[in-house]
Amino acid sequence: MRSAAFKIAAIYIVVALAWIALSDNLLDMVHISANRANMVYLNIAKGSLYVIFTGVMLYKLIDKYNSRLAASEQQYRSYFDNNPSPMWIYRQDTLQFTDVNDAAVNHYGYTRDEFKQMRVLDIRPTQYRKELSKIIKTLPEGYNDVGTWVHQKKNGDLIDVQISLQHIKNNGENKIMVLAKDVTELKRLEQEKNDYLLRLEDTLNSISDAFFLLDKNWNISMANAMFEKISGLKRTDVNGKNFMQVWPNGADSPFYHHYKKALSEKITVKFEGYGINVKKWLSMSCYPTQEGLAVYLTDITESKEKDLKLELALERYNQAAAASQDMLYEFDLLTNKVSYSETKGHFIGLEKYIISDPANAWLSLVHVDDLPVLTSTMAKALSANATKYACEYRVNCGNVNYRWVSDKASIIYNEQQQPLRMVGSIRDINDIKEQEESLKHQNNILREIAWIESHEIRRPLASILGLVELANTCNREELNEVLSYLKFSADELDQMVRKITSKIDEAEVDN
Q1: Residue 189: inside a domain
Q2: Total domain count for the chain?
Q3: Can you give the residue range of the structural domain that contains 202?
Q4: Which of the four pLDDT bands, split at 50, 70 and 90, describes residue 124?
Q5: Residue 451 CB-density burial (10 A; 0-12 exposed, 13-18 middle, 19+ buried)
Q6: Mind listing the pLDDT tens digit for each residue in 281-297?
Q7: Which long-range contacts (CB under 8 A, 24 or more apart) does 358-366 make?
Q8: Higher-confidence position of 23 and 396
Q9: What transmembrane ranges does the database entry give (predicted)?
């Protein structure tokens, strides 16, 4: 407004000065030939022309200014009335509404007349009114963004609005024009997002794997609690930092190349290796995402070291078993896969079965009478969380030629006491079993001989001894009868001796 007034005044001054200079020069040129009476008329004409010209000029300038002002006011009014967000104007001293737009009427539910009977405090919940009054008094002149506030609609609904305001002069009064943007839905979505992120963080912190996110620029955007434990780094120290900043020698790690492959080719990559930065054996799984890469790391150092020790022990045991011809095996209880040592050829006829189907071949070779014993013994050991297992049974070595074997194994469990695998050896004990059977048979024969000696021989021997005593006291006629009985007892004793001799011969043949 001041700029327009200055322009009008400046134009008027320039025109006036130009008119005076030009008109005076023109009168001086005419003065020589004109009489005094004519000069009076010329001065009157000059003044009249000046007044008419400047009046028309001022009218045009003011009319142009008013047209622009009216257009500006119309534009402002249109912006105010047609703005999709609620707007209102209130007096700075009384806080009384003086004007509201259609959006405010529709959004808050009050009519224009109702608004004009209210103050800006009336659309706030009671607990926020005192704070608002203080803020209004301390607002600096001009534009202010006063943040997000809680408003209350006519129906009682509470909404979150972002408030921007501008101090204005209207009809000579100090007023404030407000733009209110409803962000209730935005805040709800933001809250849902925050709740989701919190749940996600809780979930990620509860898993046993280390987890972190890499964006496409290799910046770490998120990590869980297990990441701190495995890496030895604080999440707050790595979030937002580049992978190479966190691990300057990371490019030397085999994991780096798998991360790079997963990122560039957008494929899932899994890998096990030794992390040179964390000095641990790790199992890695990388999954491409829209933002970059999700990485899961599991510390397998303990199990890996056990496996390495087990491999070393198996290698040593293989070397030792090669001399003893034991067959070593490892039975993976999770996959039902069995692997055997190179000495399996010692068991005649087994290779063709084991090589073709190692998981089920062995049980198919077990003698039908021994299979229940084998399965029940193994089941009892596993159910009792036993660390040792042992069983003796017969296996078919070809052409229905069964041989006795001794099966002994150690059972390995995980931290949850779930059985993982069995590592053991199978030894051919058929010769030992046959010797045991032979000894059992000999012992049975010896027991029979002992029984014959203690029971059956005693009867005829006692008869002979009694008849000898009787022969010393009887006459000749009686002696013949005693001798016949004596011969019968002697024959019976001879049969007992022959029976014992036969048993001894049988034992010697078995031996």
Answers
A1: no
A2: 5
A3: 194-299
A4: very high
A5: exposed
A6: 888 899 998 889 989 88
A7: 362/338, 362/395, 365/395, 365/396, 366/393, 366/394, 366/395, 366/396
A8: 396
A9: 39-59
